[in-house]
Each structure stands twice: as C-alpha cells, then as structure tokens.
Amino acid sequence: MTLVPDETLAAQSIATSPASFAPESSASAINWGPILAGAAAAAGITLVLMLLGSGLGLTMVSPWPSAGVTITTFAASTAVWLVIVQWLSAAVGGYLTGRLRTKWVGIHTDETFFRDTAHGFLAWALATLLVAGVLGSVLSAAVGSGLQAASNVASGAAAAATANADSPAVDTATSYFVDTLFRPSDPARVAAPGTAESDQAALQASRILLASAATNEVSAEDRTYLVQLVAARTGLSEADAQARVDAVLTRIGQAKATAQQAADTARKASATFALVGALSLAIGAFIASAAGALGGWQRDDDEVHYFSR
Asked: What is the value of pTM for the model shown?
C-alpha cells in the first residue's frame, strides 16, 4: 500500500472541483470613472449640438410669408437633427467609456465584451438622465406657462358665461362677432349714444354665442331670438337679419373647426415626435453599447501590441 502525500491529495481535490476552492475577486466589475467621463462627454456634445440645431432652425424660419420653410419641412428637419444628436453623442460617450476603463486581468473574452457593452450602456443612460434633467426644467417652465395661459382663458370664458346681466362689459372672445351682428345698415347710427337696452342686447347675444360654441349647436329658440335682436338693433328686415345671423354662426363654426384642426395637427406632431424620440433613444443605447465594446477592444488590443514589441 502506497501512501499519498497530503499536498498531492489537495492538488487532486482542487483539480476535480476547482469551483469550490476558486477565490472570489474583490475588484468590482464596474468602473464608474470611465462611465462618468463618457456620460459627461455625451451630455456636453448633446447640449452643444442642440444649440447648433437651434441656430440652424432659426435660420430656416421667417416671419415673412413664403420666405421660410414649411412647418412640415421644419418638423422633419428637427426630428432628423435630434436623431443625429443622439447617435453622435452616444457613440462618442460609449467609445470614451471603453477606451478609458481599467484593463481587466484574468477575465474571459466573452466576459470582457459584456462588461464593455454594459459600461457603454450605463454611460448612455447616465448622459440621458443628465440631459433630461437640464432640458426638463425648461420644458416644465414652458408647460407651466401654457397651462397657466389655458387656465386664464378658461376662467375668462367661465366668467363671461356667468356674467351678471347688469354688467356693461362684453366678452372679448365674442365681441367681434357681436359687433358684426349689431352693425347697423346706416353707418350714421354707430355714432348714436348707447342705451341700457342696447348694452343688454349685446350681453344676451354674447352669452348665446358662448353657449352655442360650447354645445356645437344653436337651438331654434336662440336663433330666432338672435334674429329679433339683430333686426331691432340694426334696422334690417327679418330676412336680412336671418342671413346675417347665419353668416356669423357659420364663421364661428369655421373658426372653431380651424382651432380643432390646429390642435389635432399639434397632437399628431407630438405623437410623431415622441415615437421618433423613443426610437432614437433605443438606437442610441445600442450605439453606445457597441462603441463601448469597440473602445475596450481597441484598448486591450493596442496594449497587447505595445507590450509584445
């Protein structure tokens, strides 16, 4: 019987089950220094390119009719530029992250590739959060101003709709249409001083127009009353007053339809912008990950060639 030394038994045990004796590395798989550097570079490039795009965009538009590009061309150019900004910043940030990270020793090639890819992705995510934080305050201020303006308009409309009948004021949103309704056939009558009855008629017509705009229809009773008011105020015949009322109501409907069309166009543009932005961010994340892997591979490859000489 041959005795086997203890050292030989230990070596055989390690060879048969290396996982049970393999020491765990104390080094972290994430190098935050390169990630922060790449994210800062990507965020800086994004802000610079956004300012450049704003300047180029302002040169495309003009307040003069037919002097600038159409709104469709401007929106398409803006979407394309945002995609370019995202891709360039993601590529630079991811590549710098891969080139600046510390060399990993004793790591399998597949694991190195995964870590470089993850580092590029993390740099892109951090840069996206930084840019969103900077631009988010600006967007929040703009949205807040818009909501405040909408609230003021809604409050004004509600106040006009519930105004006291004794108030001599006429809502400015419908004052033009009311003036059109009560425009006398004889222009000399405009110079006549107003009476309490004329002010009351204007207020009643204003409230009818507000109610019709809210419900998208004018009842037969309201239409007949408007015709009577117009005929009494302007001296027109009932047929002419009826024609004027119908013309003004048609113009109000057209104005409302135009506003609704503009709102629908803005909604579609916002939806398209959101979809294009989401797609651009997704591709930007892929580009940053690939650039991180490329930067890490070039760093290790250059280092191997350097030490092999």
From this structure: 0.60
